[in-house]
Amino acid sequence: MAGAGTEAGAHGQDRGVTATTPPDPTTLPLEIKARLLSGQDFWSTPPVEEAGLPSVVLTDGPHGVRRQQGDFDRIGLLESVPATCFPPAVAVGSSWDPEVAERIGAAVGVEARAIGVPVVLGPGVNIKRSPLCGRNFEYYAEDPLLAGVLGAAHVRGQQREGVGASVKHFAANNQETQRMQVSADVDERTLREIYLPAFERVVTDARPATVMCAYNKVNGVYASQHRWLLTEVLREEWGFRGAVVSDWGAVDDRVAALEAGLDLQMPSDHGAGNQVVVDAVRAGRLDEAVVDRSVRRVAALAELVREPTDGFDVDAHHALARELAAACAVLLKNDGDTLPLTPGQPVAVIGEFARTPRFQGGGSSHVNATRVDDALTALAGLAPTFAPGFTLDGSGDAAALRDEAVAAARDADVAVVFAGLAEGDESEGFDRSTIDLPAAQVQLIRAVAAAAHRTVVVLSAGSVVSLEGWHDDVDAVLAGFLLGQAGGSALADLLTGAVDPSGRLAETIPLRLQDTPSYLTFPGEQGHVRYGEGVMVGYRHYETAEVPVRYPFGHGLSYTTFQTADLQVRTTGDAGATVTLTVTNTGDRPGRHVVQVYVATTAGPVRRPARELRAFGKVSLGAGESTSLAFALDRRAFAHWDVREHDWVVAPGEYTVQIGASAADVLDERTVTLAGDDVVPELTMESSVAEWFEHPVAGRQLLAGFLAAMPDGAAEMHEGMLQMIGSMPMRRFTADFGSAVPAAELDRLMAAARAAR
Ligand code: BGC
After folding, report:
1. How many CB atoms lie within 10 A of CB 700?
2. CB 361 within 8 A of CB 420
């Protein structure tokens, strides 16, 4: 059954030419159509034989396929079919490399085809609003451009292999606390500039087969039944043509959800919701056309169903996981060229994570890895001594473990401490309450650093951990985040210099949790989380409010050095620019460099972040090699979301294009003037007097008439006067000074302003 429907669907042009053409699914009885719109079990849609539709399996990803074939659960506790665990999004974010994301997407697609999965759920492109979010390891970045470009690349790679993606969790799902109920209260500009653009880019650039709605409410309305999000923004503005799938168990009101634009409810609710749909149609409370609309979209997913392929190359995918993981880790500090380690150098490897690697996060994305590399084995060529230093569950005699590690460190030239968070410390389903490393590990690092000649710390954690209390005591820090099943060997490749570190931070490492922009409002209270920091998320906050951080967004070192030169910025039209520059590898070994292009401006009527990432690119350069790069900045690179216009507006004014080594370190910059958009604001009687006078169409005429009606000498005073009365709404102004501005004249000017819009 699956095969027949599948093949016809897979080759669309074959459809409708045989004598056995299946009927249009919308002509089926209502009960069958309703059945198609929810899962038949935990992971699949029901087959509809009458319409030749096979069952469609949707399982988790996105950094590996999690196909459960027996018992199932949504939190990754039960077994799934072995698959390669590629670097999770937290690592891919740090790669700043769409090629890494695309190759992971493609490899996951190949494995999904082999395992018989037509839709893999992911990627997640939610923004890291707080380092505490328990699911940050599944998200790419604190910046929407970086998250969107990487998410789109992943979807492109996966769908190129014929496997549908499901970009998630739409939208404003930035915490796990009360994730199924909390209302994310976010203003319009912040949604548009921070929380929606990554989804927009994935949808418009990569056309995912499905979008998964979030559990939470957005401004009081469940995302699963949010018409503005699911229909007006997603479909009408962005042109999404696929199916909207609920997060597992996210549907609250089935009829409201269908009407809002949610097509497929997952998982099965044993038919309860289907009956509600049937009853609503029969009672005239739901238009059957709404059901048909979703039936068409869900039926289209059947085109992705194919016969499974003949397996995948486990070794090749493991090697790929290793290569890509090495492109993700971030070298934060490397005083005195402590790294790379040199052959023959006496090395002490310390920390349980060297032997028992932490390489993925807990919850629905948990992959049953085909194999796991540990760094201790991978570093065997250096013949290191080893001491575990601590236990993952905090059991055992911490002092004795520490003393053993210190003794090993004392005898070595370099001590490499593998520290981090254990799986139980962070996961889907709950948020962290601290960014600190476990106290025993902090004590261990300090003790080792005091005894060792030189100390390197390698961190494994799904999100930011604080470096305070030990950072200044150590010589080098390599942030691995979570690198997937080959992370251990990839870390060894970086530590020994077989590969140049080229990751850059996709999230700021703050000095204190209290400095984080959402500190006072995360994770909310009494059912609401107020996104009070607005657009000032991550580096936008630290750079604008000049809050010092330990390491800024975009920071990352290499074993070689790079120089940026020849920066030129040319405007293209009223609201665009091209940026060209040259990058040279000035060191004596090959390396990869990330060019970061930011835009800084104070133009326009809204408070802008100090700078915002607007383009980036990663280049490979041999020692001494140079290359030229060009970036096109379109109008969105300069625009703000204007809540009055309900649109993107490029304000006329000056824009400084900056090349940054990070969000905090500007290497070079050029300022251009943009003519911007010719916005004629609406004028009403609620508009302020200042808005009336400053209006490009009505202002001059109004001012002339107004001054003519004033007593002699008032003309000279009009500046000061304007300041005093400027904030009065015109309606109240006319109540006081009616004779100065006749109502008929105001009506005429309002009409003129409207006509000019
Ligand atoms: C998660 C989704 C996941 C789904 C299915 C939910 O709890 O939020 O990301 O795809 O479960 O496992």
Report:
1. 12
2. no
Q: Give the pocket of ligand 1 (CB within 6 Å).
A: 60, 74, 121, 168, 247-248, 364
* Tens of pLDDT, residues 652-692: 999 999 999 999 999 999 999 999 999 999 999 999 998 99
To test the pocket of ligand 1, the residue of 59, 60, 75, 224 to mutate (highest count of ligand atoms within 8 Å of its CB) is 60
Read off the tokens for 422: 């254990």
**CA–CA separation, 6 vs 305, rounded Å?**
5
- DSSP assignment of 93-119 equals HHHT-HHHHHHHHHHHHHHHHHHT-SE
pLDDT surpassing 80 at residue 186: yes
Task: Give the other-Cβ count within 10 Å of 561's Cβ.
Answer: 14
Among protein residues, the one whose CA lies closest to atom 3 of ligand 1: 364
Token reading at 365: 């994305």
Rg (CA), the chain: 29
Q: 452 vs 346, 375, 688, CA distance in Å? A: 11, 20, 68
Any idea what DSSP says for residue 607? P
pLDDT in tens, 271-297: 999 999 999 999 999 999 999 999 999
Q: How far apart are the C-alpha atoms of 735 and 158, rounded to whole Å?
A: 64
**Which amino acid appears at position 521 of this protein?**
T
Mean pLDDT of 33-57: 96
Q: CA–CA distance from 752 to each of 690, 692, 702, 726, 757 (Å)?
A: 17, 12, 12, 21, 9
**Quick one: CA torsion of 53, 55, 58, 59, rounded to 10 degrees?**
-160
| SS3 state of residue 286 | coil
Pairing of strands 509-510, 612-621: unpaired
> For ligand 1, atom 8, which residue shows the shortest CA distance?
247
Among this protein's residues, is 668 annotated catalytic?
Answer: no
Six-digit token string for 527: 């059912």
- Residue 80: both structure tokens together: 């799934």
pLDDT at 69: 78
Rounded CA separation 353/339 (Å): 19
Least Cα distance to 29 among 288, 240, 219 occurs for: 288
pLDDT the model gives residue 3 = 31
pLDDT at residue 9, as a whole number: 32
State the DSSP code for 87. P
Mean pLDDT of 138-154: 98
Of 408, 123, 168, the C-alpha closest to 266 is 168
Q: Of the listed 60, 247, 374, 500, which one is catalytic? A: 247
> What proportion of the chain, given as a percentage, has pLDDT over 70?
94
Shortest-distance atom of ligand 1 to CA 215: 8
Are 352 and 510 in contact by the 8 Å Cβ rule? The answer is: no
Alpha helices in 499-638 (DSSP H): 539-544
Ramachandran region, residue 162 (left: φ > 0; alpha: ψ -120 to 50; beta: rest): left
pLDDT at 11: 32
